[in-house]
Each structure stands twice: as structure tokens, then as C-alpha cells.
């Protein structure tokens, strides 16, 4: 088996994987778009957050279709040694690469802007939903435990929150270095958990 035969085989296998991944994404997108209820039922207790997935069904269909097309072009082009199909395949790859680089540059340029938007959205939601919505509380507890942080900014995110009011001025235990209950604002400030 020569070098080019191995490269050709790898190209066919790689593009076959892209094709199958695209078909899977396309099928998931169609399923979510057509019958979002059964998809949400599958998610069970996380179904309230699953609505976001239902909204991206059409996006999954578009991306899946592009992947199916790319996989087909690459697989057939490599199998048949078709210069036209391979040129089309590599042109699409080049366009996607340029778009990714441009998206990365834009994301880097506007990262502080995006952080401000996220902060403006997350902090009020944290004040309102933490402690009252079990799913939100579990997600935040896991996040704060894993990242060893307290809130989005620091313990002040919880000052005046529903959680603090309902727990007699206590903050979540992750806001104090020594996970003590109750964790007061004074203890949280002394711990300086970011």
C-alpha cells in the first residue's frame, strides 16, 4: 500500500465520519424542530432549560446539512479522484476556516462588551432565582464548588437577594473558605472568595 493510497483511505474515512456526524445533527435538528415535546420529555427535570435546545433546531438542521454536503464532497472526491469535487471541498473548508478566524477576532475584540452583557443578565437572575429555583440553584452550586468562587463577581451578588432574605442573612456556604453554615457577609468578605 503506497503513501497516497493511505492518504486517500484516511480522507475517505475522515469524510465518512463528517458525513455521519452531519446526518446525526440533521436528524436531531429535525426531531427537535418537529417534535420538541418528546425531546423535552427525554430531558426530564432539565426540560425548562431544554427550551433553548428546541430553539436551535433550525440551526442544527443548517449545520447538519453543510456537514453532510462536505462529507459527501470529500468522500466522493477522494474515492473517485475528482479534482472538481476535491477543489469544492477544500474551498468550503477554506471559507469555514476564514469565518472561524474572523469570529475569533471579533469575539476577542468584543469580549469585554460580551462580559458586560452577561454580567447585566446573570447578576439579577442570580439575585432572583438562586435558592428559589432548584435547577438554577443546583447549577450555581456546582459551578461555584468546581470553580471555587462565589457568585459571578463575589459575595456581593447575594447581598439583598431572595436567598439571603429567606436564610436570615446567610450566604451560600461556598462564599466562605471554611464551608460553614451560616456564612455571613462579614465571613465572606474576610474569606475573599472571588
From TrEMBL:
Membrane topology listed for this record: Multi-pass membrane protein
InterPro entries according to UniProt: Tetraspanin/Peripherin, Tetraspanin_animals, Tetraspanin_EC2_sf
Protein location: Endomembrane system; Membrane
Cellular component aspect of the GO annotation: endomembrane system; plasma membrane
Top-level taxon of origin: Eukaryota
Role according to the record: Structural component of specialized membrane microdomains known as tetraspanin-enriched microdomains (TERMs), which act as platforms for receptor clustering and signaling. Participates thereby in diverse biological functions such as cell signal transduction, adhesion, migration and protein trafficking. Regulates neuronal differentiation in response to NGF by facilitating NGF-mediated activation of NTRK1/TRKA receptor tyrosine kinase and subsequent downstream signaling pathways. Plays a role in the inhibition of TNFalpha-induced apoptosis.
Subunit structure: Interacts with SLC19A2. Interacts with NTRK1/TRKA.
The protein's name: Tetraspanin
Species: Notothenia coriiceps
Amino acid at each position: 500500500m503506497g503513501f497516497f493510497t493511505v492518504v486517500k483511505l484516511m480522507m475517505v474515512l475522515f469524510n465518512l465520519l463528517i458525513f455521519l456526524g452531519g446526518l446525526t445533527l440533521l436528524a436531531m435538528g429535525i426531531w427537535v424542530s418537529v417534535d420538541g415535546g418528546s425531546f423535552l420529555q427525554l430531558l426530564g427535570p432539565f426540560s425548562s432549560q431544554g427550551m433553548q435546545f428546541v430553539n436551535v433546531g433550525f440551526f442544527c438542521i443548517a449545520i447538519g446539512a453543510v456537514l453532510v454536503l462536505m462529507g459527501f464532497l470529500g468522500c466522493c472526491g477522494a474515492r473517485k479522484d475528482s479534482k472538481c469535487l476535491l477543489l469544492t471541498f477544500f474551498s468550503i473548508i477554506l471559507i469555514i476556516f476564514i469565518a472561524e478566524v474572523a469570529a475569533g477576532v471579533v469575539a476577542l475584540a468584543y469580549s469585554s462588551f460580551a462580559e458586560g452583557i452577561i454580567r447585566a443578565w446573570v447578576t439579577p437572575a442570580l439575585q432572583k432565582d438562586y435558592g428559589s429555583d432548584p435547577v438554577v440553584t443546583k447549577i450555581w452550586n456546582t459551578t461555584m464548588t468546581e470553580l471555587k468562587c462565589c457568585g459571578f463577581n463575589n459575595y456581593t451578588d447575594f447581598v439583598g437577594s431572595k436567598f439571603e432574605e429567606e436564610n436570615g442573612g446567610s450566604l451560600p456556604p461556598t462564599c466562605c473558605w471554611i464551608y460553614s453554615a451560616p456564612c455571613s457577609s462579614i465571613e465572606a468578605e474576610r474569606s475573599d472568595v472571588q
